[in-house]
Specification:
This protein has a domain of 90 residues. Helix content is 50%, strand content 14%. It has 22 helices and 16 strands. The two termini are 18 Å apart.
Length: 538
């Protein structure tokens, strides 16, 4: 456990595995265990980035850079972007410029806190690489998931324990959704914020984002740009004709040969020997996009059909459609990573545990289609603790690592520690087991049939002791009710619903209290290559 102090802020890092919130596949990846090594390429360290730069430089074409820069300039037209963001876009023309990318859904008002952590991890990694590799340039990219169609995942955010929800009809790519009906959401939200300076800033960000931009993609771009433009963040919308044209050869290949299905299926067969599979591929991993729908493309009876519609194509027709109407073809979760890596000079993708897990399924697919597989980096995860909360933790003698224990474990541990009687029966059980070992030896020497009875008695008596322990602990918890209540209240405050707060809270709660200094604290505190969980005491 590492602790550092910056001004009035204290930064503590603890191993991810000590939190209990991260899947085995990620923990094994961080430890570079043999079982996971076949599923990634370069590891996220300086040596890995050195190799990745060399590999990407060989495969990424100048023409692709020029198309990318032109698309970004058009996407940012009419937005107030910083000098640093403008410089970063122009730097992408140069063959010694590379990107670090994160992606996220278009959640209402950024959604969960970790939206910020993803982006700041990306920005900070670019800065760190710039210092290590002064001959190269590094540009942070936020890839907006504008083509997603799962509206229920993004139509709300949590504020002080309550959901702020946007109700509207679902259908089609979310980036194209009109923001017209968000006035009523704003009317509700602003009443909850109060009238402080920070509250007024939040209202303005929401209002300018959603009420001044006609679709969700533009609104999200505005908000992300407002929060991060000082750091040169470049925001990319993949729902773009010129970028899709770059991807068309892969789309045609997928339609004709079903390459992703074949290659990912092979990988899954090996991966599932040790790990849980995150996503399963379809025969064709593409959607067809219309004005109000996004449906799977399926191949049946020699015909390409758009699921749940009357639209169908022959092979020649769909290949012609892919060539002439690239915007209609949208990659699913299996192919979206390929789209990203084909159009960007990207070195590394930063994502959460679930994202990293499905990227692990894709390495062989990338190799087959001759696209460089990126470095995968688990995003920074953060627990924010106020000075008041830290004082309470100290008074209750709860360490940061203990904070992440399951609640019943934490309560039991602290009640036992605080008790003036011996509640822990481990020694008694160990003593009992030793006695029965002696009895088993005697039984073997005298009557072998007696060993079964000895074993049965051992099980019975140990079970009895454990029951007594549980009853005693329960009684002690009642006696120490005040301590139990204080611990429960504090842990629930820090870990809402016994989950990491970054998955449950929205940035607005902290912005309301700290303003822009909250973003500055994150910028200072997040160290992406240290591969540790971060606790910030503000």
């Amino acid at each position: 456990m590492l602790t550092k102090c910056y001004k009035s802020m204290k930064i503590t890092q603890i191993p991810f595995k000590k939190t209990g919130f991260f899947p085995t596949i990620m923990l094994d990846y961080l430890e570079q265990k043999e079982t996971i090594q076949p599923f990634y390429n370069n590891f996220p360290n300086i040596a890995g980035f050195h190799n990745q730069i060399a590999a990407k430089q060989k495969t990424y074409r100048l023409q692709t850079r020029l198309v990318l820069v032109d698309a970004l300039k058009k996407q940012f037209a009419n937005f107030d972007i910083s000098k640093k963001t403008t410089e970063n876009i122009n730097l992408l023309k140069l063959q010694n410029t590379f990107t670090i990318t994160t992606g996220h859904q278009l959640n209402l008002f950024t959604g969960p806190l970790y939206f910020l952590y993803k982006i700041i991890s990306t920005i900070n990694l670019c800065e760190e690489l710039s210092a290590k590799f002064p001959k190269q340039n590094f540009v942070p990219i936020y890839w907006m998931a504008t083509e997603d169609h799962d509206f229920e995942e993004i139509n709300y955010f949590n504020f002080e324990g309550k959901k702020v929800i946007w109700n509207r009809e679902d259908g089609g790519a979310v980036g194209r959704f009109s923001t017209e009906s968000l006035q009523s959401v704003f009317d509700v939200f602003k009443t909850q914020l109060g009238t402080s300076k920070n509250a007024e800033e939040l209202k303005e960000i929401f209002k300018q984002g959603y009420l001044k931009h006609h679709n969700l993609a533009k609104a999200t771009r505005y908000i992300a740009n407002e929060l991060f433009k000082a750091y040169g963040l470049v925001i990319l919308d993949g729902d773009d004709k010129s970028l899709k044209e770059l991807f068309t050869p892969f789309v045609k290949d997928e339609l004709e040969n079903e390459i992703s299905f074949k290659e990912v299926t092979k990988t899954i067969t090996k991966l599932k020997e040790n790990y849980k599979i995150q996503v399963s591929p379809r025969e064709i991993n593409l959607f067809y996009l219309g004005d109000n729908f996004r449906e799977r493309i399926i191949f049946e009876d020699g015909v390409y059909k758009v699921n749940n519609t009357q639209i169908s194509f022959s092979k020649a027709e769909i290949l012609k459609e892919a060539q002439e109407n690239p915007l209609a073809f949208s990659p699913n979760v299996i192919m979206r990573p390929l789209y990203q890596e084909a159009i960007l000079p990207n070195l590394c993708y930063i994502g959460g545990g679930g994202e990293m897990a499905y990227w692990m399924q894709l390495k062989n697919y990338f190799r087959k289609v001759k696209v460089t597989f990126p470095i995968l980096l688990l995003r920074n995860s953060v627990q924010v603790i106020s000075k008041k909360q830290q004082i309470k933790l100290d008074k209750l003698d709860i360490s940061l690592e203990e904070l992440f224990l399951k609640q019943h474990q934490l309560l039991s541990k602290k009640v036992v520690e605080n008790s003036d009687i011996q509640i822990d029966f481990d020694k008694k059980i160990a003593y009992l087991q030793a006695q029965f070992e002696d009895l088993k030896k005697i039984a073997k020497k005298t009557d072998i049939t007696f060993t079964g009875a000895v074993k049965a008695q051992e099980v019975k008596q140990i079970k009895g002791l454990k029951n007594l322990e549980k009853r005693l602990l329960k009684a002690e918890k009642r006696r120490q009710k005040d301590l139990v209540d204080r611990i429960t209240l504090l842990q629930n405050e820090l870990l809402p619903n016994q989950s990491l707060e970054e998955r449950k809270r929205n940035f607005s709660e902290y912005y309301l209290e700290y303003g822009v200094s909250f973003l500055e604290a994150l910028k200072e505190g997040l160290k992406p290559l240290e591969l540790q969980f971060t606790v910030l005491e503000l």
